[in-house]
Amino acid sequence: MTSDDGSTSPPVRTTINVDIENNIPVEVRDDLRKFRFSRLKGISVLIVKLIYYYKDKQTDCRCISAAINSSYTSQLSLETQERLEDISLEELADELPENAPRYVVISYPVKHPDGRIAVPLALINWKPTTSSPEMNTLHASGLSMFQQVAEVSRYTQIVEVRDGAEALTEELLNKALG
């Protein structure tokens, strides 16, 4: 890295605060609680995105490599992107970004062989292969903490989706939740 006077110095790397439990806004916690206790019959989802703050600005992790190499303070937080009710998996796949990871809490009806219908919660770890390695690393660092804050860890499966919209199928969810 070259400074204004022409001398070179190594890039300054900052430590990223990955303690997202303390950086989760009250609004996101409230959204998660309301979603967990809602009694919906169809497919419903709560989409949450990881937000990376640097230079007193917020980014959806798009400019992360430049930010990581900056000398500014940085931290991670979460933000509710959207809540969708009574949608299809195809509509959900259309709502999710092709190049950015998301945490998706889904209420998905499962029909059991004896005819009962259960509507368990699941956590979809939406992590497209087209996401940058930096974004995937930050997303992975917050997964277990998000799972705890969402209070879905005791009752649900984590469904990994890496191959985009084509991979988000009824077969995948039925296999994971059935």
Automatic annotation (TrEMBL):
Pfam families: Cofilin_ADF
Family classification: Belongs to the actin-binding proteins ADF family. GMF subfamily.
Any one Gene Ontology cellular component term annotated for this protein: actin cortical patch
GO MF annotation, one: actin binding
Any one of the GO BP annotations: negative regulation of Arp2/3 complex-mediated actin nucleation
Organism in which the protein naturally occurs: Wallemia mellicola
Designated name of the protein: ADF-H domain-containing protein
UniProt superkingdom: Eukaryota
Domain ADF-H: residue ranges: 39-177
PROSITE patterns assigned to the protein according to its UniProt record, in alphabetical order: ADF_H
